[in-house]
Amino acid sequence: SKSNAELRSDFMKRASVDYVSVVKPEDLGIDRSSGVPVISAVYEFRTNLIGNVSLVIDFSASSDPNAAPPDVE
After folding, report:
1. How far is the C-alpha of 27 from the C-alpha of 8, rounded, in Å?
2. Where is pLDDT greater, at 49 or 19?
3. Residues 6+ away with beta carbon under 8 Å from 12
């Protein structure tokens, strides 16, 4: 029964307590087509290792327990 803005605000409060800084509230996808809001986040974390070599981590999460995991290449 919460609005998208309220869900994003709740996420921001919890993320700040857990020191989550990579995912921002505006990065959340909220789908209400099934009647129950399904919240998902897909993001990429990139950091330099040495010289021109970087580490890239692709992350995908969803509040839907039946969501299929993304394909790993």
Report:
1. 9
2. 49
3. 25
Query: What span, in angstroms and rounded, lies between the C-alpha atoms of 25 and 41?
Result: 9
Cα separation, 39 vs 8, whole angstroms: 10
Q: In 3-state terms, what secondary structure has residue 50?
A: strand
With b meaning 16 or more CB within 10 Å and e meaning fewer, what string describes 23-56? bebeebebeeeeeebbbebeeeeeeeeeeeeeee
Structure tokens at 72: 């790993």
* Banded pLDDT at 55 (limits 50, 70, 90): very high
List the strands of the sheet with 53-62, edge to edge: 28-31, 38-50, 53-62
